[in-house]
Amino acid sequence: MRCWIPIHLFLTEDTDLFIENGEAKTQLIMKKNVYQNYLSSAAPRSIPEVKFEKFCERSDSVEWWYKNRDKGNEYFSIVYKDNSNRQKLFYPDYIISVNGALWIIETKGGFDRSGNSQDIDLYTPKKFGVLKAYLEEHGLKGGIVRNDATTDELCICMDHYSDDIGSDDWAILSDVL
After folding, report:
1. How many domains would you assign to the chain?
2. How far apart are CA 122 and CA 111, in angstroms?
3. Averaged pLDDT, 22-36
4. Helices in 17-79 by DSSP H: which ranges?
5. Which end of the chain is more exposed for a tag (fewer CB within 10 A), N or C?
């Protein structure tokens, strides 16, 4: 048996195309998003992205946020080399303004209640390295954001990448922003 979910396409003022789930109970306009009429049901987004967007909307220090796309010349990307030394493009998930300062954020799968990583991206450490270098070169802030299922808190890694949520490399995002 096939189940159909009604979806609606909508264009932002910048003529970017988003899909919304018409059956989602929540259809709130995300007021801090730079796109006009960006809805809380916009898709496709991962669970970490949904959690991060809700955090941005609730945070007093986040003035605005931009959801970057995963491909295309018109979106922000950073060049890096994969494990086979091939050039790749890394598209960080978000650019946000925090008290007037620009931050670049990548979200990844979180940590389960036992502290095990749920990140399926083998290149996360490499992406963290190129993101950190870019941030330092341009005087910006940012990092990798992941959810800790034990506390249901978003955490950020900004200085040294670690796959251990218990390490001092991870801080609670609301304490940082």
Report:
1. 2
2. 15
3. 75
4. 47-58
5. N
